[in-house]
Design a protein that fits this description.
The chain is an alpha/beta fold and about 280 residues long. The protein contains eight helices and six strands, in the order H-E-H-E-H-E-E-H-H-H-H-H-E-E.
Length: about 280
């Protein structure tokens, strides 16, 4: 009897250790129980976290997409070595994204490598496009500079402000930031531009031509040489070799963002990783 009890105790202990290990292998907060701000290292005060959470929830509800922030010390305890893979799994495992296409964007900050990852899905792959929208976060807001100086509340506030700008820009214009439509071809506008260019060039050329009325064309070179200034007694053509310079032609290459990528589960994401 004692052996049976001991065996059961050992089995229960083993199962408990497996549960703890599984919890450490996945950044799951809980299916559809996600947090708008996941602060895994306590870099924010309770007041800052409450403020950011309220703003993220309001923004998400207004545009019916999920906008969230997550901070972790490292991705390695969860069994990941790639920041984008980790962000994809965090997005999916925690149930982010609204609608059938699970639209949303999550900013994931990893402390030990100073990586920051934008992970997008659904409509946000276009709204926060890798070519233009994500550049807006990096270069038009103070997000990156704030991350560099470890001012996380400011950095996350800038992320929220940038997200609101991009979402509102698309709502007001009917297309995403940086995706301005190319104007349709207009024959009248094209002819008008050509005529304007012709007149713009004709006037100055006519003025220059009037100043050259005393110039006459010469049929030979004698008129341009001073008499007895050069005496050529012998002339030879000598071949001294040749030199060829080859330059590699640069071709345009996408930054990899436009087409997005598929996660290990097969879900399509956009986004990219930087370090600051």
């Amino acid at each position: 009897m004692k052996k049976i009890i001991l065996s059961l105790a050992l089995a229960l202990t083993f199962l408990a250790l497996l549960a703890v290990s599984a919890a450490a292998d996945s950044p799951v907060v809980g299916s559809k129980q996600y947090l708008y701000v996941e602060d895994g290292v306590d870099i924010l005060t309770d007041e800052q976290k409450a403020d950011l959470t309220a703003r993220l929830q309001r923004l998400s509800d207004t545009y019916q997409i999920d906008v969230a922030i997550a901070v972790f010390q490292s991705i390695y305890p969860y069994g990941y070595s790639d920041d984008m893979d980790f962000a994809d799994s965090y997005y999916e495992d925690n149930g982010f994204g609204r609608g059938s296409d699970r639209s949303g964007i999550v900013l994931v900050r990893i402390m030990d490598t100073r990586a920051y990852t934008y992970d997008t899905a659904g409509s946000c792959k276009a709204t926060m496009s890798d070519e233009h929208g994500l550049d807006y976060y990096d270069y038009e807001t103070g997000l990156v500079s704030a991350l560099k100086r470890d001012d996380y509340y400011t950095a996350f506030s800038e992320f929220i402000n940038g997200s609101e700008f991009l979402l509102n820009y698309e709502k007001e214009n009917g297309y995403a930031y940086g995706d301005e439509p190319v104007p349709a071809f207009s024959l009248a506008r094209t002819v008008g531009s050509l005529f304007t260019g012709f007149l713009g060039g004709l006037i100055p050329v006519s003025g220059m031509k009037s100043k050259l009325k005393t110039v006459r064309q010469q049929v030979g070179a004698n008129a341009y040489a001073r008499e007895n200034s050069v005496a050529v007694t012998r002339a030879n053509d000598l071949y001294i070799g040749h030199h060829v310079t080859r330059t590699v032609r640069q071709t345009e290459r996408s930054s990899g963002g436009g087409g997005g990528h598929y996660s290990s589960s097969g879900m399509h994401h956009g986004g990219r990783t930087g370090h600051a």
